[in-house]
Amino acid sequence: MSRIFRLAPNRNPSPPYSLRSLRKGTSFGKLLKKELDSLTDIISFGVAPAMIMYAAVFYDLHTIGVLIVSLFPICGALRLAYLRTQSSSKKNVTGLPIGMANGILAAFILIGPVLNKDVSMIVIIVLSYFMVSKIKFFRVNNR
Does some domain include residue 29? Predict the structure, then answer.
């Protein structure tokens, strides 16, 4: 769902309760918009898929399962924080974007019950590592 709303076109004028309405305001409003945008990215692209992965695959591992799936939103938050401090290139981005990692994880959630827990665990660890790595990835959109 968050992918669908993320691709929605800008409405003009924006409703007063939306993040897009903060873009037009003061510098504090613009800063708040960026921070809230990062928070919504962490929740919708990090925490939500991690919870679904726990419920679909790691539910019987209890604490170990929670620790494994917690790695995904934590690394996503670290990547977003690092991204905010760096200047961006038009062609490349450092670290796997959380939206792209979410798409890959969503595909594994769909086939996760078919796979064993070891493969799913490796997928989460590898995606988490790629999000905080210094590897340059091709930029998909021009935001």
Answer: no
Could you tell me if residue 35 is inside a domain? no
Mean pLDDT computed over every residue of the chain: 79
pTM of the predicted structure, to 2 decimals: 0.76
HEC string for 43-84? HHHHHHHHHHHHHHHHHHHCHHHHHHHHHHHHHHHHHHHHHH
Q: Considering the domain boundaries, does residue 130 fall inside one?
A: yes
**Residue 127 covered by a domain:** yes
| Calpha distance 139→143 (Å, rounded) | 9
Report whether 117 contacts 58 (CB < 8 A): yes
- Determine the pLDDT at residue 138: 80
**Mean per-residue pLDDT for 124-136?**
93
How many structural domains compose the chain?
A: 1
CB 82 within 8 Å of CB 25: no
Q: Domain span at residue 88?
A: 41-138
